[in-house]
Amino acid sequence: DFIRAALGKLKFKSREQELTEKFQAWLVTKNLSPQQAQYLSLLKNRGIVRLGVDLRDLFEPPLSILNAARLGTELFGTAGLQEIVKDLNEAVFDRRPA
How many helices (H) and strands (E) does the chain have? Predict the structure, then answer.
């Protein structure tokens, strides 16, 4: 595989592609409204950049500009938002809580 990759015969997925595929697979296992799925896609994009999502990210640009903390609380409730972010990190970004 290494030689084929070096010769350009074997294509590897980018980290972004791999995480997006994991996110899509995770997302279909959830029973979510379209608004909730769209919100989680926003968090996924942030998570790709930072290799995970922290609730503090919701209070910092660019997410704070979009009122992500308020919107997430409206969509999931406070405890629900904490739980879905934890699940997203574990399932998609392989991050376990410390």
Answer: 5, 0
